[in-house]
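User: Good morning. I'm curious how adenosine-5'-triphosphate would be positioned relative to this chain. Could you predict the structure with it bound?
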Amino acid sequence: MSSGEASAVPSEASGGPRLRAEPDLVIDVRGLTKRFGGRTVVDEVSLQVARGSICGFLGPNGSGKTTTLRMICGLLIPDAGEGEVLGLDLRRQRGAIKGRVGYMTQKFGLFSDLTIAENLEFFARVHGLDRRRERVAEALEGLGLATRSDQLAGKLSGGWKQRLALAAAVLHEPEILLLDEPTAGVDPQARREFWDQIHDLAQGGMTVLVSTHYMDEAERCHEIAYIAYGRMLARGTIGEVVAGSGLKALMGEGPGADRLASRIEGRPGVAMAAPFGTAIHVCGPDIAALRAAVAEFDTVAWHEARPSLEDVFIHLMRGAEDNSVVAA
Ligand SMILES: Nc1ncnc2c1ncn2[C@@H]1O[C@H](COP(=O)(O)OP(=O)(O)OP(=O)(O)O)[C@@H](O)[C@H]1O
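Assistant: Good morning! Here's the predicted structure, ligand included:
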């Protein structure tokens, strides 16, 4: 993500000012809003994503991630807001946007009684693609599916199904790839391989916006956006999001440290305390107040730590306003 503004920055080489090039924003949406039955489920969400970057979209269940993705790819019309996707108007050029975006939904519709290759051929037809046979062969090769092309999709493990779904989503060579919780329920090895593929696609120039609940996946994104109750609460690199939260953390290690959470949580200056393996994480806005709150537990060794992304997200969510109430 980026501010989208050209700015004068000092040149490292000459010492003189130079104009930083306008970043190539392929997603630039502002104030997107969607209501369902009187309830605002996406509330003035703005998002900018630069070409070739991987943006992680995080937030609790029901926070509006899928709804936002569907507005960005032209499947859903916003009730308010505007924007451009690949330079195309989000409202007036939805058909053109759809053709240039790949979208892998949570429950991807693969045909279980067709083989891998037949599934891809089907999607090639749906997109009206030329050179169907070559494209399918390339996709099978590129995503490591060539040796399994005759296997029935229904017999694949979760990880291979995701890989096939990804192959189908990029068959028409979209410039933007929207992934909605693509690795839910997939084992760590398969998730890692899936993410390696995402990075390969991004290196090839594809822009990826991916929703996830996994913190390790957030760490693999260039930038992240955090939404709760329909509102965008934080955007930027992980370092920027952590710093922007204003949260400080103490890590406590030693005998029984992991059992102290309930005794520390709720003390002045403590936003939250949670076990972290055999250690404990205590977070709050002021490090001196945190040290005071844990001072009596002197059998535990305390040291300042970087708040985890999870700490930051829970803190942000607790401070956000619940939108589950329907407007009168
Ligand atoms: N077509 C619809 N009609 C009515 N309500 C809807 C519709 N689509 C989504 N919602 C509601 O909007 C809210 C946001 O849903 P959305 O699926 O966008 O959230 P999400 O962040 O993707 O959640 P999850 O992480 O569980 O997938 C939810 O409360 C959902 O029930």
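The pocket of adenosine-5'-triphosphate is lined by residues 36-37, 41, 59, 61-67 (CB under 6 Å). Confidence is low (pLDDT under 50) at residues 1-22.
Let me know if you'd like a different ligand tried.
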